[in-house]
User: What shape does this take?
Amino acid sequence: MDAVVRKQLDAIPGGLDPEAPAHSPGTSVALRSIREFPDRSPAVSFAVAGTVLQDDEELAVVMTRPGSDRAARAGRRIGPRGRNVVAKGWDGSYSLATWEGATVVRVHPRGHCWSLWRWHDGEDWTGGWYGNLEAPWRRTSIGFDTQDWALDVVAQGTPGPTPLRVGLKDEDELAWYIEQGVISPELAAHTRALGDELCEILLRGEGLVAADWSRWAPPSDGEPTTLPSEWRVLPL
Assistant: This one.
């Protein structure tokens, strides 16, 4: 990997919180995407509350139950399908809502530029898989920080003799971010390459795809999680 691109991948805006210890299972945390903006300091782009299932040198695993807090930048939405808030001129406000649908479990292998998501309906895992391409997670005192790169991998099915149905998602949004100057062409090209690699992992049913996910099945007696009061604050 080109050293300049790798530096971009690892450089989540905001200060580093090197003293943050590992989070114990059951801890309520905020998972945040941090982004730089053309006319303001780095800020939280979106945040979602969750509960830690595992946090060690190998993996970080966070689940989000329905009804848990989430926050996203507020403002005029443009771009593909009207889903993206303009970066320039954003006033710093957020829309607050709650997580909908089934419980999602995000598994992030340390140092990798993606996390793998699955949904649990209370009885079993559903057939959907989601690969979120992003900067390696950085542990903070209130959770984990990353930077979402727009492009994602989606898959459907159960690993086994028949390969999963796999494809890329939101390629149009990645192209839009390049046009807006939010993501460089070099970073976008590497993001696409990472997406292709993750597609191959899913197709081959390797690594986390073949892991025993029963160890991360959400406990039946859990409650929705709230964002900590300081979720907007970045480390200095």
Observations:
- The CA atoms of residues 14 and 234 lie 6 Å apart.
